[in-house]
Design a protein that fits this description.
DUF11 domain-containing protein, DUF11_rpt, Immunoglobulin-like, signal, 3 domains, 2 helices, rod-shaped, mainly beta
């Protein structure tokens, strides 16, 4: 700055006064919360310069004309899967849920159109889309009959800056999906005002009366959740050994038959409430207290252990058995 300029600045005392006049009621009430995208859309930024100088009667102030700039709406959104990992499911299962969080990362109130894609390429199978559901009660868990079914254009979620909504996609798993196969389920959210290349402007369409400008996300984002088939199957193999009264293995009256039932579970899933039952054959008599599970004796009574003998049949409750394991049950009868 030259000496004349310095003298002018000193004598005139040029300074600026800035004022932010809220264009929305929340700021007018004195709210001071910060927002991810900065100043709220519709806020008026008013700039007035002042010049002062020494007049004959003392200091004089002169205001410039005010320059007002209205903050435009920045259109931005993020979609993030809320599932901790692949969701285990079974073939032919219905109302299977993947969960997402949609967040308005722009600086104005905005509505978003939601779309599900259950036919993504690169996975092993496609689910059948059922519906998109909005988490009405905000607990993050799908509640049938409580949460609201989404209809595009009718109840698009309207979010304030930094506000989020939890969204569920419900799917049906095809019956022919095989153990270990995965399916990708994508949710996308697009700003209703518009989307496109960052910097694209929609004149006069912004929240608060300004323009709407597409932000870094393109006002369009998506993320995926995944299902994985964890199926299990059982094979049950029955065999018999005979011991006759003479130490041989002939099936004559008085011989004892030991039946062995081997359940083998395969697959990455589990079988719940698995039970084995077998009727005592005709022309034989059950040997009391002869039921075993994995070599350990079980009682005939329907009590705390897994075995029981009722109505001339044995039964063993195995509970939940994961894939890769076997369970062996035996019992004895004598030939009449």
């Amino acid at each position: 700055m030259t000496e004349p300029e310095k003298t002018f600045a000193y004598r005139c005392g040029v300074r600026k006064t800035f004022a932010l006049i809220a264009g929305v009621s929340s700021l007018a009430l004195g709210a001071t919360s910060a927002h991810a995208a900065g100043t709220l859309a519709g806020t008026d930024i008013i700039n007035i310069a002042k010049a002062t100088y020494d007049g004959p009667d003392g200091p004089v102030e002169v205001d410039s004309n005010p320059v007002t700039i209205k903050v435009d709406e920045l259109l931005d959104v993020t979609v993030v899967s809320s599932d901790p990992g692949d969701i285990a499911t079974d073939p032919a299962a219905t109302a299977q849920v993947t969960t997402y969080q949609v967040t308005n990362t722009g600086n104005g109130e905005e509505a978003f159109t939601l779309t599900a894609d259950t036919a993504k390429g690169g996975d092993e199978f496609d689910t059948v889309f059922e519906q998109i559901v909005l988490d009405t009660n905000g607990n993050g868990v799908y509640d049938p009959g409580v949460d609201t079914i989404y209809t595009a254009g009718a109840n698009d979620p309207v979010l304030k800056p930094d506000e989020s909504v939890t969204v569920f996609i419900l799917s049906t798993i095809p019956a022919d999906a095989a153990d270990g196969e995965r399916a990708e389920i994508e949710l996308s959210a697009v700003a209703v005002t518009g989307s496109g290349v960052p910097g694209t402007t929609f004149a006069g369409a912004g929240d608060g009366g300004g323009d709407a400008v597409v932000g870094s996300t393109g006002a369009d984002d998506e993320d995926s959740g995944f299902f994985v088939i964890q199926a299990a199957k059982i094979t049950l193999v029955k065999s018999a050994t005979v011991v006759d009264p003479f130490g041989g293995d002939q099936p004559v009256p008085g011989s004892t038959i030991t039946y062995q039932l081997v359940a083998t579970i395969t697959g990455t899933g589990s079988l719940s409430n698995l039970a084995i039952a077998d009727d005592v054959p005709a022309d034989t008599t059950y040997v009391a207290e002869s039921i075993t599970l994995e070599g350990a004796g079980l009682s005939d009574a329907a009590d705390a252990d897994a075995g029981a003998f009722t109505s001339n049949a044995i039964g063993v409750a195995l509970g939940t058995v994961p894939g890769g394991q076997t369970r062996t049950v035996t019992f004895k009868v004598t030939i009449n």
